[in-house]
Design brief:
The chain is α/β, with parallel strands linked by helices. Helix 1 crosses helix 4 and helix 2 packs across helix 3. It is globular. The chain starts with 11 loop residues before the first strand and ends with a helix.
Length: 150
């Protein structure tokens, strides 16, 4: 597979719930902890607000990895824990149909004061993306393979 020019830094989108992940991200910032600057944090009420197709569109637009950080079973919203897991599973199925590595999307429970777990998730995603490369390369390679198969 041909690779495009080396990425400077992969782009990581973090969907962080207000009841968990975002508070963890805020605690990380307040502690002045350092983590990769290639992250874009979007506070959300509940990840279930986004359809599975949202993740595909994000990858197609150049986001290389997505972390969904929520409060897990501690969520104040009944639908969040089970609904989010089902949504991510559906997104994985769609990613496979486009040749996108499912490791690019990760769901993790982060509490309101979880600085170290927040940093661990971001750093792991950053290292993974540096290893597997740009998502657009995967999409192009898969599309080329599909075209040759026809």
């Amino acid at each position: 597979m041909e690779k495009s020019a080396p990425m400077q830094q992969p782009k990581i989108l973090i969907l962080a719930t207000l009841a968990g992940g975002y508070a963890g991200a805020d605690a990380t910032g307040q502690s002045h902890a350092e983590y990769p600057t290639n992250t874009f944090i979007l506070p959300v009420m509940c990840p279930c607000l986004f359809p599975a197709e949202f993740y595909l569109r994000a990858f197609e637009q150049g986001i290389d990895g997505i972390l969904v950080l929520y409060s897990g079973t501690d969520s104040p919203y009944k639908v969040e824990a089970g609904g989010t897991a089902k949504l991510i599973q559906r997104a994985y199925e769609l990613m496979k149909t486009r040749g996108i590595d499912t490791r690019r999307l990760r769901l993790a429970a982060i509490c309101t004061v979880c600085v170290k777990p927040f940093m661990k998730e971001v750093n792991q995603m950053h290292e993974l993306l540096n290893g597997i490369g740009c998502v657009k390369d995967e999409i192009v390679a898969y599309a080329a393979g599909e075209a040759q198969a026809v």
